[in-house]
């Protein structure tokens, strides 16, 4: 009898213990997706994004000859598209006043990262970026466990979500206008346009500088402004940056949609975000960004506000020595880097305040890039039906920043987009979506926090 009682007791104890362990595991997984504040910077994910480990972008050296041959055709196609866009805009200018009444007021302190690197056969003769290759893991033993090859649009694209507009071309004027309307409806005010110098592009794309005039025109129609996100092109240094900033201001600076920021001293200056700025040593940047620098842009017609990317904590001192005017954090993966970890924003803001720098935290709705890095699921940050995004906004408002940046409008490869997405299922894949919400839920959340920011900012300034 005693043996039976003890056996039943042991079985009950084991079952209870097992249920308790399952409960704890469920709680831990839920917490990981929502607030991964303490994730280490040494995460292997960095090998795919941080250029000192694996270069993110290159000049298309191997393609340069073919690009040169195609450049004339590309310029002609873009010029034609610009003409089409201008004619389309002229025909649709009459409803602009009505649009102004229907759409949210633009908040020029909300900056949103925007990419024009997508292409399809109708506008580009082929798919660009939607057919993104599957990137192999750097460890061959791990890489062998994952698929290789490229995506095959339009059913199979390099993204975990699927756009409402389909596998679109960034050259399509109707797409550009739809994007402007979405960004305006979200109450963002400044588009931070990913930019490479003429003839250059990321390793999976083609040059897009000729598209800038069309983007500016449509941005102006929706009362939006455009600034530039200067990507890490080959041989980027103080001299090339001077020439490229001069090029941008000379070519686009007179456009009414070209963004200028009003400083505390009352000056109106262009603003440039500089991605992967830490790759270049502070001494080189100081040649360009300090008054005494050999290539100084200060106190010239091309002076501007230059915003550096902060990844590691030590970068804040390098940014200050370099002569930058501020820093941003870019990554939408809370916990991936020191800069993208929400709990570090207060100390970074304090450092910036004490050194007369701008601190621009970057918020994002989530992160997932397993469509192009299938081995990287440990860095996924679930959207949690919008809670992750709102948590990021809440953390940003706590430090009272002058500007908040949003990662991103349409970086589909990394799943940070707030652009409208729709449910889609193919024979190969089931795409994620925004259910139970509508396709515009992240635009609505952005608009909500834009209004909240405006109201709180009024209190800060009192």
Automatic annotation (TrEMBL):
Q: Which EC number(s) does the record attach to this protein?
A: 3.2.1.130
**Which positions, given as ranges, span the membrane?**
12-31
Reactions performed catalytically: N-{alpha-Glc-(1->3)-alpha-Man-(1->2)-alpha-Man-(1->2)-alpha-Man-(1->3)-[alpha-Man-(1->2)-alpha-Man-(1->3)-[alpha-Man-(1->2)-alpha-Man-(1->6)]-alpha-Man-(1->6)]-beta-Man-(1->4)-beta-GlcNAc-(1->4)-beta-GlcNAc}-L-asparaginyl-[protein] + H2O = alpha-D-glucosyl-(1->3)-D-mannopyranose + N(4)-{alpha-D-Man-(1->2)-alpha-D-Man-(1->3)-[alpha-D-Man-(1->2)-alpha-D-Man-(1->3)-[alpha-D-Man-(1->2)-alpha-D-Man-(1->6)]-alpha-D-Man-(1->6)]-beta-D-Man-(1->4)-beta-D-GlaNAc-(1->4)-beta-D-GlcNAc}-L-asparaginyl-[protein] (N-glucan mannose isomer 8A1,2,3B1,2)
What does the sequence similarity comment in the record state about its family? Belongs to the glycosyl hydrolase 99 family.
Gene Ontology, cellular component aspect: Golgi membrane
One Pfam match, by short name? Glyco_hydro_99
Keywords assigned:
Golgi apparatus, Hydrolase, Membrane, Signal-anchor, Transmembrane, Transmembrane helix
**UniProt-annotated location(s):** Golgi apparatus membrane
Please give the InterPro entries that the UniProt record associates with this protein. Glyco_Hydrolase_99
- Membrane topology type, per the record? Single-pass type II membrane protein
**Gene Ontology terms for molecular function:** glycoprotein endo-alpha-1,2-mannosidase activity
Origin species = Sinosuthora webbiana
Q: What is this protein called?
A: Glycoprotein endo-alpha-1,2-mannosidase
């Amino acid at each position: 009898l005693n043996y039976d009682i003890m056996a039943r007791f042991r079985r009950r104890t084991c079952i209870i213990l097992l249920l308790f362990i399952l409960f704890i595991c469920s709680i831990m997984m839920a917490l990981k997706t929502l607030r991964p504040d303490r994730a280490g910077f040494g995460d292997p994910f960095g090998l795919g994004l941080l250029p000192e480990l694996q270069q993110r972008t290159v000049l298309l050296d191997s393609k340069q000859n073919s690009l040169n041959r195609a450049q004339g055709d590309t310029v002609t196609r873009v010029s034609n598209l610009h003409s089409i866009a201008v004619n389309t805009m002229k025909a649709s200018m009459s409803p602009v006043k009505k649009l102004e009444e229907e759409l949210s007021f633009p908040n020029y302190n909300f900056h949103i990262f925007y990419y024009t690197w997508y292409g399809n056969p109708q506008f580009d003769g082929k798919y660009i970026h939607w057919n993104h290759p599957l990137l192999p893991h750097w460890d061959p033993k791990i890489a062998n466990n994952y698929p290789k090859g490229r995506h095959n649009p339009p059913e199979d694209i390099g993204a975990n979500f699927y756009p409402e507009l389909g596998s679109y071309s960034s050259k399509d004027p109707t797409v550009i206008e739809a994007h402007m309307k979405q960004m305006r409806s979200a109450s963002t005010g400044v588009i931070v346009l990913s930019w490479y110098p003429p003839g250059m592009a990321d390793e999976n794309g083609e040059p897009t500088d000729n598209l800038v005039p069309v983007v500016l025109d449509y941005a102006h129609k929706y009362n939006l402004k455009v600034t530039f996100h200067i990507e890490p092109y080959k041989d980027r240094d103080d001299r090339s940056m001077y020439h490229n900033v001069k090029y941008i201001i000379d070519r686009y600076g007179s456009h009414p949609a070209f963004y200028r920021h009003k400083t505390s001293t009352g000056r109106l200056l262009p603003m440039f975000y500089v991605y992967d700025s830490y790759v270049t040593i502070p001494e080189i940047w100081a040649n360009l960004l300090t008054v005494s620098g050999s290539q100084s842009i200060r106190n010239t017609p091309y002076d501007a506000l230059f915003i550096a990317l902060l990844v590691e904590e030590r970068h804040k001192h390098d940014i200050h020595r370099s002569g930058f005017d501020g820093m941003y954090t870019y990554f939408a993966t809370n916990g991936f880097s020191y800069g993208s970890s929400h709990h570090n924003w207060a100390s970074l803001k304090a450092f910036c305040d004490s050194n007369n720098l701008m601190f621009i935290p970057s918020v994002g709705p989530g992160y997932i890039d397993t469509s192009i890095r299938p081995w990287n699921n440990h860095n996924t940050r679930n959207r949690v039906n919008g809670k992750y995004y709102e948590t990021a906004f809440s953390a940003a408002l706590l430090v009272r920043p002058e500007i908040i940046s949003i990662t991103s409008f349409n970086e589909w490869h990394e799943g940070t987009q707030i652009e409208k997405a729709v449910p889609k299922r193919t024979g190969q894949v089931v795409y994620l979506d925004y259910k139970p919400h509508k396709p515009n839920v992240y635009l609505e959340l952005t608009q909500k926090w834009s209004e909240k920011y405006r109201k709180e900012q009024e209190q800060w300034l009192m």
